[in-house]
Design brief:
By secondary structure, the chain is α+β, with helices and mostly antiparallel strands. It has 24 helices and eleven strands. Strands 1, 2, 3, 4, 5 and 6 form a six-stranded antiparallel beta sheet that branches. A five-stranded antiparallel beta sheet has the order 9-8-7-10-11, with no helix packed on it. α4 runs antiparallel to α5, α6 (174-200) packs antiparallel against α12 (319-349) and α20 runs antiparallel to α23. The longest helix has 34 residues, at 225-258. It is globular.
């Protein structure tokens, strides 16, 4: 009874706090640019160019100018808006839509569900969430604004947050020390790899509308944008690193308590086996979180074949696509390297008097290594084929017509550049023109040399500074015997193939058969998702139901590959889809409630340039991307709950009530770390968004928090969190019905 009273009191406090925030922000006004004041108001009547607004923060009514394009939607009577005007009420204009109050109540609903499902672990879990959010907003962001190097800031802050979260989850014990060592080691590996990948891919860090806005801000000119990108990749991996390290260390210490005869080497090997089992679903967490957030970028390759004058190879070499790949590949590599680090430290710190080896240590299984070797050879062959493809000639785009130049996209290597890159900064803007001597590597004129004029504007998103031996993509225009060329981008496709190939091999070297199954599962998911995105791009079909169907197919395929055709896999797949569907409903309802059009949200901005893209269901794509982001974490939680129920049923403790109770207990233990995994993945991908309100002078924080980008990311996190929470009781219920003792015994008799 006391537990239920505490839960009720905590929920009551959450809603009281939400009401107090609502009351406080409803009367907020803030200064705007040019001495203006930003007020809140409610639209009373709509007109073609003006709306009548009742000011709720100051009283009275005003006629305010209104642009549907600026607000990304049409305003109807009853809509809550921000109005910017002079103190005397003149020159009033609608400058945004109010969404913060709605976000507060959605967050309160999520925290209430979190507390209800969390039960006795709720207080510690909420404290863990508070530590993660507080560390990011009140430590990391101020450090970045103060000029601290982004890589060092995120490494220090991330390590400190890992320590605090681990202490809140596991308490002060040896196990916590092993978790912290694994987390810090995994973060350090991610930190090093992120810097290396950014350098190899020649990423500038200015790749999206948000980063461009930040770069144009006065404070942004002094920021290290490549460092911010590297910091974002590192922060994005923090949640999954903590989750994986916690699981591995907990398993090692549990084994050490019941098997005192095992050596430390065997304990470390046990941790490796557990890590390999967990790795399959943990990889999905990062992949689908970033895929859902970058669904607009994933759509770009499907516009090239539809006649939009955008070659597929140019999309695959673009900075936007390279950044998405870097987030997934580097985060995955850091996650994989966390396994041996945590297993080793847990083996060394496990209780008992043990040596490193003992006479009873088990030898390596030859059959498993044979299967691993066969899988490795397969992926080596596949990676080699991809590298050959990436190094091949790019095809023409556009058509050759009489009297018109033929345009081709070709690869070239830089032989010389005048002036050299290190002298460009010393020249005036008018003199920043590189004369590049390039040797064509593909196309009809392959092998010939060409002079290319490469203007340097000083804008990172446009400039492609040429260095000797660097490979570029050139757009050549041939009219008769005359050929002119311009620099389109760096040739990033071959390095991207090498990076992905490296991560796949790392997964199999560290993960063994688990890594092989995980990579095969991801390879199977790719055509399912790609086929759905192609249909959306080609036909303009509703995106949300198609992506929901793809999520169902992905869940089934992944669980069959990882767990086979078993009752455990079926319960996990159905429980995961229940959580995904819940997250999708929240995303769709929240998008409609808060008036998102989808046009100004996240990566969807990237496909607005295409004229035919106007037929796309942008709001559905936004909600579908949020749903897609839940897929990985929902599968991870579902397999943890289902596996625990299956183990209990196999040893004869599988009564229906017992399975429900044990399944919920396991779900509660992983719930906090999985929510943090999703939270940090989204925060890492949006570090520029966190800096923008303070970096842009004259930008009211109230407007920044309510704009499409910020509000959409808040909804993405809440929808994902609710999806995780809903997965736990759904999977536990299914497991208690279909895995209980009577059903298992009946199957054994048959």
């Amino acid at each position: 009874m006391r537990k239920y009273v505490n839960t009720g009191v905590l929920i009551l406090l959450i809603w009281i706090a939400a009401g107090m925030v609502h009351h406080r922000v409803a009367a907020w006004t803030c200064p705007g640019p040019g001495g203006r004041i930003v007020h809140r108001g409610i639209v009373l009547a709509e007109a073609a160019e003006n709306v009548r607004v009742r000011l709720t923060s100051a009283g009275g009514t005003v006629d305010a100018a209104y642009s549907a394009m600026a607000c990304a939607q049409r305003l109807e009577a009853g809509a809550q808006v921000f109005v910017e005007m002079h103190a005397d009420g003149s020159e009033a204009a609608v400058v945004g839509v109010v969404r913060d109050v709605k976000m507060v109540y959605l967050a309160a609903a999520f925290l209430s569900l979190f507390v209800i499902v969390g039960g006795g672990n709720a207080a510690g879990s909420v404290a863990g969430l508070a530590a993660g959010i507080g560390g990011t907003f009140f430590v990391l962001v101020p450090a970045l604004l103060a000029g601290v190097r982004p890589q060092l800031a995120v490494l220090g802050t991330g390590s400190a947050m890992a320590v605090v979260i681990s202490l809140l989850i596991s308490g002060l014990r040896r196990r916590t020390l092993a978790i912290v060592c694994g987390c810090v080691g995994g973060l350090a590996a991610t930190f090093v790899l992120s810097g290396l990948v950014c350098s190899v891919l020649r990423l500038t860090g200015v790749y999206s509308p948000l980063t461009k806005d930040l770069w144009f801000a006065d404070a942004g000119r002094q920021m290290d944008f490549v460092g911010l990108l590297s910091a974002g990749i590192t922060l994005g991996a923090l949640g999954v690193v903590v989750d994986l390290a916690t699981g591995v260390a907990a398993a090692v210490f549990e084994v050490a308590e019941v098997a005192e005869h095992l050596s430390r080497r065997e304990l470390a090997a046990s941790g490796m086996r557990v890590g390999r089992d967990i790795m399959g679903t943990e990889l999905n967490t990062l992949v689908f979180a970033y895929a859902g957030a970058g669904v607009g970028v994933l759509l770009l390759p499907f516009f090239g074949p539809r006649g939009y004058e955008l070659p597929v190879m140019q999309v695959l070499s673009s900075q936007e696509f390279a950044v998405e790949t870097a987030f997934i590949a580097v985060g995955t590599a850091g996650l994989i390297l966390t396994i041996p680090l945590t297993a080793l430290m847990a083996g060394l710190l496990a209780p008992g008097v043990r040596g490193w080896v003992s006479a009873g240590d088990r030898p390596m299984r030859r059959r498993r290594w044979f299967a691993w070797s066969a899988g490795t050879l397969f992926w080596i062959a596949l990676g080699g084929a991809g590298l050959v493809f990436a190094s091949g000639a790019y095809h023409s785009y556009g058509q050759s017509r009489p009297g018109r130049a033929q345009m081709r996209l070709v690869r070239a290597t830089v032989l010389a550049a005048d002036p050299p890159a290190d002298e460009l900064a010393q020249r005036t803007r008018a003199e920043r023109m590189q004369i590049v001597t390039a040797r064509l590597l593909s196309g009809p004129a392959a092998g010939s040399d060409l002079l290319v004029h490469n203007p340097i504007s000083g804008l990172p998103e446009h400039d492609k500074v040429a260095y000797p031996d660097v490979r570029l993509l050139l757009k050549t225009m041939t009219a008769g015997e005359r050929t002119e060329a311009s620099v389109m981008d760096y040739d990033r496709l071959a390095p991207l193939v090498v990076i992905v190939f490296f991560v796949v091999l790392l997964a199999m070297v560290v993960g063994g058969m688990g890594g092989l199954r995980a990579t095969v599962a991801l390879a199977v998911c790719a055509p399912i998702l790609g086929g759905v995105l192609y249909v959306v791009a080609a036909t303009g079909a509703p995106a949300l139901p198609l992506l929901a169907a793809a999520a169902l197919g992905i869940c089934g395929a992944v669980f069959v590959i990882l767990a086979g055709f078993t009752r455990k896999a079926a319960c996990a797949a159905c429980g995961a889809f229940a959580g995904i569907a819940t997250g999708g409903v929240v995303a769709a309802a929240g998008s409609a409630w808060m008036g998102f059009s989808g046009l100004g949200c996240g990566s969807l901005f990237a496909i607005r340039m295409f004229g035919e893209a106007g037929s796309l269901d942008f709001r559905g794509l936004l909600a579908g991307g949020m749903l897609l982001g839940v897929v990985g974490v929902a599968m991870d939680v579902a397999i943890a709950v289902s596996s625990a129920a299956d183990e209990i049923a196999q040893v004869g403790g599988g009564g229906r009530n017992e399975l429900w109770r044990r399944g919920m207990s396991v779900g509660r233990k992983v719930m906090c770390t999985m929510v943090l995994a999703l939270l940090f993945a989204y925060l890492g991908a949006n570090i520029p968004l966190l800096l923008l309100p303070k970096a842009v002078p004259g930008l009211p924080t109230m407007l920044a928090v309510n704009n499409d980008y910020f509000a959409a990311e808040e909804l993405r996190m809440i929808a994902g969190g609710i999806g995780i929470v809903a997965t736990i009781p759904a999977t536990a219920l299914l497991a208690s019905i279909f895995m209980n003792r009577s059903i298992v015994a009946s199957d054994e008799e048959k």
